[in-house]
Every structure is written in C-alpha cells, then in structure tokens.
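Q: I'm writing up a methods section and want to include an example of the input and output format. Could you take the sequence below and give the corresponding predicted structure tokens, formatted cleanly so I can copy it straight into the document?
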Amino acid sequence: MSAAKIVHLPTAAEVEAAKASSRMLSKYAAADDVQISLCGRNGKADQLVLPDQALQILLEVLSEMSKGNAISLIPHHHEISTQEAANLLNVSRPYLVQLLEKGELPFRLVGTHRCVRLTNLMEYKANIDKQRSRALDELAALSQESNIGY
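A: Here is the clean output for your methods example:
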C-alpha cells in the first residue's frame, strides 16, 4: 500500500554532478528520443534510447537534486494510505476520512484499511486548488469594488 521511500539528501558532490548533468541533458530537451552512451568504471559500455518523457523526468530529478532537494517518484496508479493522502493534501487524517466517507474522494477497502489511488487524490487536489483560486479572485474583485484597498 505505501510507496517504497528512498530519502536521501544529495551531498555537495552530488549537487554539483546534478548541475553539470542537468546542463548537459537540457541541450537535448526538445528531442523526441535521445540516445545515451553509458560507460561504467569497469570499462563496460552500453547505448540506450531515452524516450522524451523519461528525459523530461530525469531533467526534473536532476534539477531538484542540483538544488539540494531529496525527491520521490511514485507511479500514478499507486495506492496510498489515508495518512499519506492527508499529508499530500495538508489536512488531518480524520478530515480526509470524512471526505472519503462522504464520497468526495473514491477509495477501496483492503481489510479494514482505506486505500486512495494517487491519481484520484491529485485530481481532487487540482479541483480544490481551482476552487480556492476562483474564490480568492472573487474576494479580490469584491474588495476592489468595495474600495477596501487589498
């Protein structure tokens, strides 16, 4: 149910390597597929084709590492626990469970545990973020009309 987590803050040397690699790979960001040569310290070498989407993900990973950030990759079809879902929404677990029980967010039971599909959660979050943005726009417009000065 929970994602395999590898939390590793990059060392200074890894940050520098990520910066250099990111700069080099970014030259190929517009390419459909990129062919890469890999050479290990043992002298073995291989060629591989990196699909565009994989290159974009790799560039994002390197960009975050170059800033000293740890990153995690989770497949979109992955199911997460209610605690992990609550953390992603920045709400309490009991509040998230209320959302599930009201049917605002789909889930499935595995034994007695609720599992939330990551794609459903991210879709819900995007919708909530849009609603919040619209509400803020409306408040800003009202304050302008009322000459409140915000």
